[in-house]
Amino acid sequence: MLDLPKIPPRKKEKIVITRAWENTEDPTHLPYVAKFNYEDENCRFEMCLTAQEADIYQNAKTEYEKAKRAHPDPMMHRHFKAQKFLSLHEHFGEQIRKFYSFREMDIQALDRVVEYCQLQIQYVPVALRAYQNDPFTGELPEHLGYDYLVSIREEEGQYEEALYLAKLAREEGWKGDWEYRVQRLREILWGAGGGAPA
Questions:
Q1: What is the side-by-side order of every strand in the sheet holding 43-50?
Q2: DSSP letters of 57-90?
Q3: Are 115 and 155 members of one domain?
Q4: How many domains, the chain?
Q5: What was the pLDDT predicted at 29?
Q6: Is the CB of residue 123 less than 8 Å from the CB of residue 155?
Q7: Do 158 and 111 share a structural domain?
Q8: Alpha-carbon distance 114 to 147, whole Å?
């Protein structure tokens, strides 16, 4: 089960995302070329990036710098700054969709879906702040990482983890039918002998 912080944190948290192969001694299995760092008054967040992810973030950062020079409007600056951070959130979502479409043809595709779902979920502290700071975002969108991983864990019969993730998505405010999914998962667990639905 994922070990995720509660949002919002009570004090400044340091969140370090450790990814597969990060600590291996075999240099052929070290796909990380950069470290992403985010810090505000409540959170310090670190995550190693692959070359592709580093490229995506660098391109978004360049767009933000161009927008700061081209647009005098501070709201546009805030929007492009938010988009800089959301570039990785969106990339993880694209990878989830891509690998999910391959799951019937490639036996390892579902493992990659789970990996990207977990990355997108672990990236939530940054994504939430970016959406909240974007003046053009009214509400949070759907979160593919939560959506797909809850469904996958439910299909695998891992109802407790599915319920935990659905509750987190609901608490954080991501768009979706989270209340219904939480209730249904509680009923499944209650029917399986897990006690009364909480």
A1: 13-17, 43-50, 32-39
A2: HHHHHHHHHHHHHH---HHHHHHHHHHHHHHHHH
A3: no
A4: 2
A5: 58
A6: no
A7: no
A8: 11
CA 128 to chain centre: 9
* Residue 188 domain flag: yes
Find the helix or strand (DSSP H, E) in which 46 lies: strand 43-50
What's the length of the chain? Answer: 198
CB distance 85 to 130 below 8 Å: yes
Residue type, 84: K
Residue 179 lies in a domain: yes
Measured between alpha carbons, how far is 114 from 96 in angstroms, rounded to an integer?
8
Q: What is the pLDDT of residues 130-164, one digit of tens each?
A: 999 999 998 999 999 999 999 999 999 999 999 99
Do residues 119 and 168 both lie within one domain?
no
Could you tell me if 191 and 118 lie in one domain?
no
pLDDT, residue 10, reads: 55
